[in-house]
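Retro notes, structure queue

What went well: the backlog is down to a handful. What didn't: a couple of records were mislabeled last round, so from now on we paste the full input next to the output in the thread. Example, using D-mannonate oxidoreductase from Lacrimispora celerecrescens:
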Amino acid sequence: MSLSFGTDLSGKVAVVTGAGGVLCGMFAKTLAEAGAKVAVLDLNESAAEGIAASINEAGYKAKAYKANVLERASLEEVHAKVLAELGPCDILINGAGGNNARANTDKEYFEMGDIEADTKSFFDLDQSGVEFVFNLNFLGTLLPCQIFAKDMIGREGCSILNISSMNAFTPLTKIPAYSGAKAAISNFTQWLAVHFSKVGIRVNAIAPGFFVTAQNVKLLFNEDGSPTPRTNKILSATPMGRFGEAEELNGALLFLLNHAAAGFITGVVLPIDGGFSAYSGV
Ligand code: NAD
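Corresponding output:
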């Protein structure tokens, strides 16, 4: 029996949405280093081009595509180009996602007097903000699966990886829409895993815990570098007592995509969280 350490994705085509961003840009680079030809999809064309250029400069293979995960026509157009330029999709990473301030409450708890106070309470949440967050995360995962997974039917070693979150297991305060949308992604991951189980497509998700990235650093650290109150709460609820390093997601990414190592794994949502989701707080 050979042990399946190391993930060789030579000959595979990986489509990564949101790949102009922090985490999925890194995933795109990791997949390319593992040998895949990577389609770098993002609404932000210049961000996608920057990631693809850095991959190609390093001697690996990538191509940037402007794509909107919320528009079927945009995805179909990109799918046709990927098919012609790189080949059929073997791996789909649904990374495009995120939150929006219009769907957040200002405070963790609703208190007497908040309706009159100058604070955005639950009662002030903006419907269009909630719809934006649900659509971006949930529909923005479902539609790319509809477009790209058709390439995978009946072919060996194909899989889909969705990006859920800690807030899918237990909602985080202030962000009801993002928490609900990520819970929907975890649920959909299981649904699609079952649905595709007879045609050779594995469907899994990772649920990252807390990682300091460009877009959340201001929430987590003050200008002088000291931790914010939210950082103290996060770290005291993380048994390992630290934030994750983005690179610590790569092992799970490669493992779940490695058919030799994870060929019997489908429908899981793997937390990568320093123990956050296992800890009751007591
Ligand atoms: P990011 O904001 O750096 O990247 C998201 C990318 O998605 C951006 O490049 C953006 O242009 C793109 N995008 C937005 N709308 C799009 C659309 N309609 N079509 C195509 N592309 C679109 O975010 P990130 O931190 O790298 O997060 C990536 C994924 O990981 C997201 O799904 C996020 O919810 C999830 N996540 C992040 C963390 C974290 O700590 N950063 C934790 C848990 C889960």
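Agreed that this is the format going forward. Reviewer comment attached to the example: The CA atoms of residues 100 and 133 lie 6 Å apart.
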